Amino acid sequence: KTPHDAKILGTDGMIGVGPSFWNGTKATLTVGGKEEVVELPHKGNGYEFEAEEVARCVRAGKIESDIIPHDETLALMGTLDTVRAQVGLKYPME
Which of its termini does the chain have fewer beta carbons within 10 Å around, N or C? Predict the structure, then answer.
């Protein structure tokens, strides 16, 4: 029964996502005591934005996204692999 929200704290404000951060549809930005709420409901399983970007690139004849280029994807996967190694997570096919 612990909270399922996430907060990102910075020197000037905070971003809150929740109540379920892993599939949140609402974020609150708080700066200087003022709040701005952004709501983006899911149209699918939560990966619809990635799918839309792939479709956009395919239609444009592109093999790489300007938003998330290949090198950034590989860097992110390297970070995730490092985290998995640190916590000892292995998948059955490994």
Answer: N
Q: Is 92 in a helix, a strand, or coil?
A: coil
| Low-confidence residues of the chain: pLDDT under 70 | none
Tokens 């790489």, located at residue:
64
Report residue 26 as tokens.
């609402």
Buried b (16+ CB within 10 A) or exposed e, 33-67: eeeeeeeeeeeeeeeeeeeeeeeeeeeeeeeebee
Measured between alpha carbons, how far is 21 from 25 in angstroms, rounded to an integer? 8
Are 23 and 46 in contact by the 8 Å Cβ rule? The answer is yes
The answer to pTM > 0.85 is no
- Give the containing element (helix H, strand E) for 82: helix 70-87
- CA 56 to the chain's CA centroid: 19
